[in-house]
Amino acid sequence: MKLPITESHPTPLETPCASYLLTFDVEHWYEGFRHRGIDGWQSYPPRDDQVVGNLLDKLAETGQRCTMFFTGRYAEEFPHIVRRAAHENHEIASHSYSHTLIPQMKGMKEFRDDLLRSVAILEKISGRKIKGYRSPKWSISEKNRQDVLSILVEAGFEYDSSVFPKILNGSSKIYPHQVELGNGASIWEIPATTCPLLGLRLPVAGGLYFRFFPAWVTRRALSSCSDAGQPGMIYLHPYDMDATCPRLPGGNILFHWLRYSGVDTAFDRLGEILKQYRFGTVLDWVNNHQVLNSVDKI
Predict the structure, then answer these.
(1) What is the CB neighbour count within 10 angstroms for residue 185?
(2) Pairing between strand 67-70 and 232-236?
(3) At residue 252, does pLDDT exceed 80?
C-alpha cells in the first residue's frame, strides 16, 4: 500500500543562500524533431558540443555556475563537455538517458533502468555523484509522481526539478518544497519559476517564454522570487540560444514558431542577465538550505 505524499513549504530564509539558480537541459538539438517523428536531422554533422562549449565559455567569462541536466545519450557522444562542465565546477545532473517522456515508458521498471543508466554514465564521466533530476519535457504527472519520486529517493537523489506549475488556476506549489513520501523518506521539489501576468502564471524565466517575452518580464519573475525569499530559476536548452540551428521541414507552422521564435537574440539576452544577477547551482541551494534550517532548529 502506497503511503500518501505530503508536502512542506519552508519558511523563507532571512538570508537566502542563493537567490538565483541557473539550469540547462542539455540534450541533442534534434530531440524535438525526433519526438515528433520528423526526419532529416540524421544528415547533419554533430554540433551540440560546439553550442554547449560556447555556453560554457560565457559562464566562465561572467564567473557564473549552473546546473546542467545532461541526457545520457548526449554524455556518451560528447563526454568532453561533461568533463569540462564538472571541471569548471558546474553541477552535473540527470535529464534521463534516452529523453523519453515518462508516460511513454512501459512502466516504472523502464523508468528506473533509464534513470540508472544515465546516472552510471554521468558519474563515470564526471567523477561526481548525481543528486538532481529533471524529467524530459516536465513529464512528471500526478499519476506517476509518487512512483517516480520514490525511485529517485531509492537511487540517492536529493531533489527533483520536473514540476511545471499550471498556467491557468496555477498551483500553489510555486516555490521549492520538500515532499514527504512516507517511512521517513523525502525529496526536494524545485519547480520552474513563474510570474503572475494578466491573470495567468507564466514560467517566463525559461524556454520559449524566455525567448518570446521582453527581458524585463524575466527580471520581474526573478526579482519577485527574491522578494519572497525564494530562489528564482532560469531554465534553458542550448538550442534555445542557437541562432544557426538547422531548420528542418516537417511539422506544422505552430511547432516551427515555438521552436525558433527568439533564438536569434536569446544568447545575448542571457549574457545580459548573467551580468545583472549572481547565480548558483540547485544542489548548492538544497544543501545550504538544509544546513540553515537545521541550524534554526538547534
Answers:
(1) 14
(2) unpaired
(3) yes
pTM: 0.90
List domains and CATH numbers for the chain.
Answer: 6-297 (3.20.20.370)
pLDDT at 193 > cutoff 60: yes
Q: Which residues pair with 123 in a beta bridge?
A: none
Cα separation, 235 vs 158, whole angstroms: 19
- 3-class secondary structure per residue, 157-185: CCEECCCCCCCCCCCCCCCCEEEEEECCE
> Which run of H or E residues covers position 243?
none
pLDDT at 13: 38
Quote the distance between the C-alpha of residue 263 and its chain's center: 18
Average pLDDT over the chain, rounded to an integer: 88
CB within 8 A of 119, min separation 6: which ones?
A: 94, 130, 155
> Measuring CA to CA, how many Å separate 241 from each of 8, 51, 172, 206, 231?
36, 8, 31, 11, 23
DSSP letter at 82 equals H
The confidence score (pLDDT) of residue 51 equals: 94
With 60 as the cut, is the pLDDT of residue 27 above it? yes
> Grid coordinates standing for 141?
504527472
Distances (CA, A) of 47 to 36, 43, 85, 137: 20, 12, 17, 22
The arithmetic mean of pLDDT across residues 232-253, rounded, is 92
2-16, 163-177, 237-251: least confident range: 2-16
**Beta strand segments in the chain, E:** 6-8, 20-26, 67-70, 91-94, 132-133, 159-160, 177-182, 185-189, 195-197, 200-202, 232-236, 279-280
CB contact at 8 A, 49 and 56: no
| Phi, psi at 208, each rounded to 5° | -55, -40
Q: Are 183 and 194 in contact (CB under 8 A)?
A: no
Report the candidate in 101, 136, 109, 93 with the shortest Cα–Cα distance to residue 282. Answer: 93
